[in-house]
Structure formats: C-alpha cells, structure tokens
Amino acid sequence: MSYVETDIDQLARRSEDEVREHLAAGKLVEGLEHMSPEYLRGIRRILTVSADTEWVSAPSYLRAAQHAPALNNFGSAMSIIQDELAHAHIAFRLLGDCGVDMDWLMYERPAEEFKYPYAFDVPLNSWVELVCANALYDQAGFVLLSDIHQSSTFGPWKRALKKVDKEETFHLRHGRTWIKKLVADPAGKAEVQAAVDWMFILTLEWFGLPDTRKRHGIQLEYGFKGKTNDELRQDWMREVVPFMEEVGIRVPAHLDEESGMYVIDCPFPARFDPEKREWDLSVGTVSWDEVLERWKGRGEMNSVYVRTMQRGYRTMHEC
C-alpha cells in the first residue's frame, strides 16, 4: 500500500457540510469517523510536511553536531536530535491513524517525495551553523507549531503539540545562548554573521509563498492552521530580528515603527547559489516560479539524509 488518495473516500465518510457543522459546534476532530475526504486530504498534507521536517532535521543536525567543541555540548545536541525524532514520530503515528502506510511513508518513499523546507537541503558544516539553525530554523518550527497548537481542530495533534512546543523552546534557547557566547569574541561573531547571512533568507522562505499567491481557504476554514504564510513570517521576524539586533548581528530586515510590521530589506525572493551557499542579490528580486523550481529540484543533502534514515530498514529487509 502506498501513500495514495484512492482510499480517502472510503476512510472519510462524512460530508463537507457535516464537518463544518461539527466544527461550528466547537468540537474537535478526533479521528477518521469525524472527517470528510477534504479534511482527511488536508490533515494528511500538513502532517506530512511537519513529520518530514522534524525527521530530516535529525541527520542535518547530527552532521554538524560532530563538530561540537566538547562532549557535553555534543550531548546537548543529541538531546535536541532525539526530541526532533520524537516529534517526527508523533506526526508519522498520526498519519498512520489517518490510514497512511507508515513503513512506506518513512522507509520506502523516494527521497524526492519528502516534503520539508529547502533549508534542510543545504548542509550544516559546523557547530556555529548548528546553533544558528537552532536559533533560526527551530524558531520557525516553534512559530508554525505554536500556531497549529492554538488553532488546530485535529484533537490528537493539538494535545501532542503541548509537549512539542516546550521542547522546541529548549532548542531555540540552546541556539540563542550559544550565539550570545560566540559573539563575545570577534572571530566567533564573524562566524555567526557568515552563517546568518545565508540562513536568514532561507528561513524567510520557510513560510512558503506570499499570501498574494497562496490560497489558504480550506487550511484556515478547517483549522489546519490559524494564520497565513505572511502572518507567520511576520511572527518569526518579530522574534528573530530584535534578538539579532541585540547581539549585534546584521539581518536584512527592520521594524517599520509606523505600521508595526517588519520589512525585508533585500530582494525577496532572491536567487540562491547552493554550492557557494550565497545569495546573488545583485540580480534583484526573482520570480517565485524560479524559487519553486529550486525547491522542487531539492538540494545535495536530500538523498543523503533520506538514505541515512532509511538505511537500517532497507538493510533489514534485504537480508
């Protein structure tokens, strides 16, 4: 059995009107018995993105954690990685409850079919880049999951995210604490700046297409999320930009005092050179179609990370 949609009409028998009536009464969706085909399709989609993002972060962070300056620092990173795997398991387990074959989803699915932010296709090569990822990527995860925790109409996920939120808070605090420590030294500050220069804009992309191009109708109507992409992007900048200003790290964004909104100070979306891990801002703003093409093409670490996570399962089944 593969991750196909042909079973959706059989698994989710409620009509769209019945689901709307259920939600309007203030009730949570607790399982397939409360879902319509559209609800099931939508909750599978957002759970898959969440599960894949948490799952692929583990090999990404592990690669960088091997550069930890001391054994106890490596232990802290491993604790974070264990948390990420547990978060992924929650989402994969819920997908199993939604009728998806978990073995196929986790261990047999081709690498290019995984759905997670493009940022994880770019390698993290140092301890500094790992702690910057904790401060930037985990902040993005916290923003996204907090919104879902507050707004989700899918009861099992809503309850599970209470624990996930607390652990993501630990991850981003780990990043912030280390960045404060590193910027106290000029060489360390230069390393943080170099990492933030390419990671900040990649995290802006994390929230997806702008609201002018993205329709959120069913996602907001059925409570898969509570805020739009642009609203979530603003929430992320509201946390990250003041912190970076506090520690003296330059970022291409500032608060517009009059509107109370954060403004991006560089071309966005922009062209990214994944080999150099540099933004070519000289060409100005590029089209979202160009960005979508890069996302769909994935990056050099996509197959590496997925193969790493699937190796044990494949070895066991090939014996």
What does this structure look like?
By secondary structure, this protein is mainly alpha-helical. The protein is built from 12 helices and 4 strands; from the N terminus they run ααααααααααββββαα. Helix 6 (127-151) packs antiparallel against helix 7 and helix 6 (127-151) crosses helix 10. The radius of gyration is 20 Å and the shape is globular.
Short structural description:
By secondary structure, the chain is mostly helical. Helix content is 63%, strand content 4%.
Percent of sequence in beta strands:
under 5%
Beta strand count: 4
Unreliable stretches covering 5 or more consecutive residues: none
Rg over CA atoms, rounded to whole Å, is: 20 Å
Order of helices and strands: HHHHHHHHHHEEEEHH
N- to C-terminal distance: 22 Å
Helix count, per DSSP?
12
Strand order of the largest sheet: 1-2
Mean pLDDT: 94
Shape: globular
Largest sheet: 2 strands, antiparallel
Structural classification: mainly alpha
Helix content: 55-70%
Topology:
Elements: H1 8-11, H2 16-24, H3 37-65, H4 71-97, H5 102-108, H6 127-151, H7 155-182, H8 186-205, H9 217-221, H10 229-247, E1 253-256, E2 261-264, E3 271-273, E4 278-280, H11 288-297, H12 301-318
Antiparallel strand pairs: 1-2, 3-4
